[in-house]
Amino acid sequence: MKAVVLVGGEGTRLRPLTYSTPKPLLPIGNQPFLERQLEWLAGYGVDEVVLAIGYLPDAFDQHFPEHEYAGVKLRYRVESEPLGTAGAIRFAAEGIDERIVVCNGDVLTTLDLGELVAFHEKTGADASIALTHVDEPSAFGVVPTFPDGEVRGFVEKPPRGKAPTKWINAGTYVLEPSVLAAVPPRLQVSIERTTFPRMLDRRGRMYAVQSDAYWIDIGTPGKYLEAHTDLLAGKIGAPPAPGAVETGPGVWVQGDVDVHADAQLFAPLLLGAGCVIEAGAVVRGSSIGAGAHVEAGAEVVRSVVLDGATVGPDVRLLDSVLGADARIGVGGSATNETVIGADSVIAAGSLLSNARVPAEG
């Protein structure tokens, strides 16, 4: 089975992390998100994936130089200009004349893809989509259905309290070739706003499966942090990262680490290979990348420290992200979903709250 993964976005809401790294290659629990997605697809028999790329294409080629991962063959289709979701899928799927799976490159999920494909076959649909339930659907595309799962309509970002259902488009589809054949080539077309709604002109073409599986869009700092919290809590399975070993309840370690006897660790935690936690440091509910350094007296709480980053002495990092090889100087703090870009150097004593700091900051 073949799949198309949409990885074309610039990830603007996760800047400055995405200035140098495409959103799908950002780590979730010390593993690039796209690797997790490819492993998930491979688990359901997908053996070839076309990446629909529009931003920093060389990064994907450098990350997967063999054009293969987890037994999945990778092909790249690079858009010269934005084509929208339907346009990008059609462009990526050129030359494929069979059923395909499509998924967004920023959704972390435990969806049973096999169930979705089986339902698609049972109904004989042209398109089947996965739905997930949210408490507040006003920021999403809402999808009301008939009792048998046939899609009744699409309501994009309904006003609060006006949504016909709390089941939303979860961004995973099974499509027959006929769906993409109806999309004009090389034009910007949205599958959510144009292609799917037009399919409802004739009954029986589109169905949906409601799923209670884990689902999160990692595209904002808050959701990126939440995905790590959920990962460490075991909501996506165990171990939370490749090669991680549980050395104590909820404390996962990848390879050799250097933790001082006077450091305090509070689960759940993920410690990457080669990281150093110095005396008097406190690390709680966080993910620490490979080769990262938490220096004496620092406090890291519900945060993500990426590979090679340094949390300086007596620094407070709370609900924030420290980019790869970045450093916060002595006595500084970063709180309230602050995101510090790769290679940034934050001066001693700086107090950051809900800030976005690129490398030149």
How are the secondary structure elements laid out?
Blueprint (H helix, E strand, L loop, with lengths): L1 E6 L25 H10 L5 E6 L3 H7 L4 E2 L2 E7 L5 H9 L7 E5 L2 E3 L3 H11 L3 E7 L7 E2 L12 E2 L10 E9 L1 H5 L9 H9 L6 E6 L3 E3 L3 H12 L11 E5 L2 E4 L3 E2 L4 E3 L2 E3 L4 E2 L4 E3 L2 E2 L4 E2 L4 E3 L2 E2 L4 E2 L4 E3 L2 E2 L4 E2 L4 E3 L3 E2 L4 E2 L4 E3 L2 E2 L4
Parallel strand pairs: 1-2, 1-5, 2-4, 7-11, 14-17, 15-18, 16-19, 17-20, 18-21, 19-22, 20-23, 21-24, 22-25, 23-26, 24-27, 25-28, 26-29, 27-30, 28-31, 29-32
Antiparallel strand pairs: 3-4, 5-10, 6-12, 7-10, 8-9, 13-14
How would you characterize this protein structure?
There is one protein chain. With 361 residues, this protein is α/β, with parallel strands linked by helices. It is 17% helix and 30% strand. The strands form 6 sheets. Strands 3-4-2-1-5-10-7-11 form an 8-stranded mixed β-sheet, sandwiched between helices. β3 and β4 form a beta hairpin. The termini are far apart.
